[in-house]
Amino acid sequence: MLKEYKTVSEVVGPLMTVEGVEGVKFDELVEIELQNGERRQGQVLEIEGDKAIVQIFEGSEGINLPDTKVRFLGRPLSLDVSEDMIGRTFDGMGRVNDGGPDLIPEKTLDINGKAINPVARMYPDEFIQTGVSTIDHLNTLVRGQKLPVFSASGLPHEELAAQIARQAQVVGTDEEFAVVFAAVGITHEEAEFFMNDFKETGAIDRSVVFINLADDPAIERIATPRMALTAAEYLAFEKDMHVLIITTDMTNYANALREISAARREVPGRRGYPGYLYTNLATLYERAGRLEGINGSVTQIPILTMPEEDITHPIPDLTGYITEGQIILSRELENKGIEPPIDILPSLSRLKDEGIGEGKTREDHAPTMNQIFAAYAQGKEAKELANVLGEAALSESDKKYVAFTDRFEEEYVNQGSYTNRSIDESIELGWDLLKILPREELKRIKDEMLDKYLPKEG
Asked: What range(s) does the ATP synthase A/B type C-terminal domain occupy (predicted)?
């Protein structure tokens, strides 16, 4: 039998203290009835003896302490799931908001999920094609990986997120593939962009979309990524689908976490973020993976904007420790009009070597990737030298590398938001650019492979 309490002693921001409670559990769902009959939801955040700290999802405005009734529901925050979720749009709390009928659930799942036994994990080693050359060819994404995108204010990470959501696929198989898209703390303009793009391109037909808006209560930002992950795990591990989950913007999530921590009067860590930020982010990122005996997979691309473009800021810094690499967007490339402005030199996919090569992509994938990285780095150095000493200081070889770098950025990186390249097209374009350099400079590719693939002049 549910107990009802009228012992609210304090409300601070989104947090409410209820005294004299019994049998209350951490993360338990709470129903709050105001003096005017309005009902709001909350969740138990902390228990101290007979006191429960409750975070209120819809905000604490208008609460009258003596007349407010609190009921603890005995269950955690959950999400109704079924295969009919695909093609539907939900708000940040998992409620249908696309104007369609309510979902008929197959089951209801705790959004906090369950820890995956490391012994049950399979090593990620199967290629996912995003259609973006700088990712597929040079920083390859594999099934079960978590590969974040580090952006900054004003850079087109929204366009990149939408492009990957449209184009991502598992090649060479007829296995089912779905995209779960979670927008956390975005503006109405951004939400309209994503929804229009998904509907116009047909991407919505294979997507599950969760949208938390900037004017929604900040506390919802804590729940939205977990809602999306719960939907992804259901489709992957119970329906054997390969699921790519894209979350933007994790910085908004971390800022909401900091706001709640401040309301709880916790001792702040770096930049005011709670000391458990690393652990909290890990509870999200580590839900990606593949499991023994299950065909499906969950692959994550979390997107975050680096405050002040500082990669040492706690959010990107801790994210980099947990995830397997990073894709970094460049202000310099954006100013040149290059789209998407992915800077390949600081970008890295730590699992790329496991998902490429003969039988997965192509035998010439790794050699061309390594050669392009080396040539682009040398070309950038030559351009810096020319800026200091003038072009007259460059050797003929240096000029070739400068020409390669310019064409690489203009033709390879600058593919636009609506160009979908297969991995074969990306590798062939790489070969076409490498012929700019003298053959003797291509030291990272074996002679027999050069004979087989290097385009002949004329």
From this structure: 355-453
Mean pLDDT of 109-125: 85
Q: Is residue 211 part of a domain?
A: yes
Last residue of one domain, picked from the residues 326, 354, 382: 354
Q: Report the alpha-carbon distance of residue 152 to residue 331 in Å, rounded.
A: 8
Question: Going by C-beta distance under 8 Å and a sequence separation of 6 or more, which residues neighbour residue 191?
Answer: 183, 211, 213
- Residue 458 pLDDT class (50, 70, 90 cuts): very low
Q: What is the pLDDT of residue 457?
A: 61
Q: Are strands 297-305 and 127-128 parallel, antiparallel or unpaired?
A: unpaired
The whole-angstrom distance between residue 302's C-alpha and the CA centroid of its chain comes to 2
Distance CA 431, CA 433 (A): 5
Residue 103 inside a domain? The answer is yes
What is the C-alpha separation between 382 and 106, in angstroms, rounded? 60
**Which residues have a Cβ under 8 Å from the Cβ of 156 and sit 6 or more positions away?**
329, 334, 339, 340, 341, 417
- The structure's pTM equals 0.91
Domain that holds residue 32: 4-75
What is the CATH classification number for the domain harbouring 68? 2.40.30.20
The 10 Å Cβ neighbour count of residue 350 is 13
